[in-house]
Amino acid sequence: MKSKLLLGLLLASVLSLSAHGDENQIRIAGGPATGEYINIARSLCASLGKLFQCQPTETAGTLDNRKRLEAGQAEFGLAKSNAADDWMKDPTFAAKHTIVRRIGDESLFVFAKPEILQAAGSWLGVRENAFLLSLGLPGELSGDATVFNALKSVPGSPLANIEVKMFPDRPALVEAVKTGKVKLGFITQVPNPTNPLFASINESGLMIMGVVDPDMITFGETFRIKPVTVKNAKWFGLGGGAHQIETANVPAAIVAVKPETLQGRAAMVQQAAIKRIQEAKEAELLPQQSWMQELANTTSLKAGAGLENAMKSMEKAAAGAKERLGKL
Fold first, then answer.
1. Which of 119, 127, 83 is nearest to 102 (CA)?
2. Stronger pLDDT, 245 or 6, i.e. the higher one
């Protein structure tokens, strides 16, 4: 009750001020036109309502969004959750910015020729035999590389032994896996059935496997394990084809400029916008497509019986992977 009263007072304060209407503006740094972050930014603006002059902005993605926040070109920015956590370790950045909340899911995938995934059996087969494999990423500064490098950097991870190659973009990565320049491609992607990436992987004769790594526990709440499916993709489950797979998902972090670093009305507007985003239901902040809402409402496998059983199944599927991969 108290928090709702505070929000009401904040919104009333915003309405009562008429000068400098541009200070009522909220700019949300989203992502590329072909990605999902820009759609989430649009949904956030719709959720804020007509009280705010909200502008969703197309950007190059997570790293570009940080630059815009630091340059005063955005009040909010979307970022991969693990990247935002790293930003907060920078005292200068953390003094002026805060993570408001985490929403949505970008799924972790590897894709390869069917015989490669069959030999590995599961992600654990890839992980434990990384020295036998090569993996491609779509750009050193991509969010995909940020997530993979976070897993690879965990002390003692076998992923440190995998050969990594960078490619200009995702189409180039798909082509590299198709032609054998690398064994595997690694991506993080919202499972949008209309995204052309899944169709291109499918048309190239490749299959997709989920990524559930035992080292993910070291990242706290960053990774959420959920079942996902996309109709225009071919999935590789435990030991063979599948209609649905379980994989880790990285939520988007909503990073905001701290109100106390702003002045006058702008500070009140920012505080009111943050409060509204924090109190809204997650489904209200996301695009309303059925696949997005379904994934948002899917329960994560937390540490416990569900996740432990999944890991045991992956261990079983990966048994003998070294011998099978060594023959390819």
1. 83
2. 245
Integer Cα distance of 313 and 278 in angstroms: 37
- What is the C-alpha to C-alpha distance for residues 310 and 305, in angstroms, rounded to an integer? 9
| Per-residue confidence (pLDDT) for residue 258, from 0 to 100 | 98
Helix, strand or coil, per DSSP, at residue 124:
helix
Gyration radius from the chain CA atoms? 21
Q: Which two tokens stand for residue 224?
A: 């959420």
Q: Are 81 and 113 in contact (CB under 8 A)?
A: no
Q: Which stretch of DSSP H or E encloses residue 127?
A: helix 123-128
How many domains in the chain?
2
Q: What is the sign of the dihedral through the CA atoms of 292, 296, 302 and 308?
A: negative
Per-residue pLDDT at 63 exceeds 70? yes
Residue 25 pairs in a beta bridge with 53
- The pairing of strands 241-242 and 235-236 is antiparallel
68 and 161 together in one domain? no
Q: In whole angstroms, what is the distance from residue 328 CA to residue 117 CA? A: 11
Structural domain range at position 243: 105-250+295-326
Confidence band, pLDDT 50/70/90 cuts, at residue 8: low
CA geometry: angle 202, 144, 35, nearest 5 deg: 70
Residue 46 near residue 16, CB atoms below 8 Å? no
Structure token pair of residue 249 = 């998902």
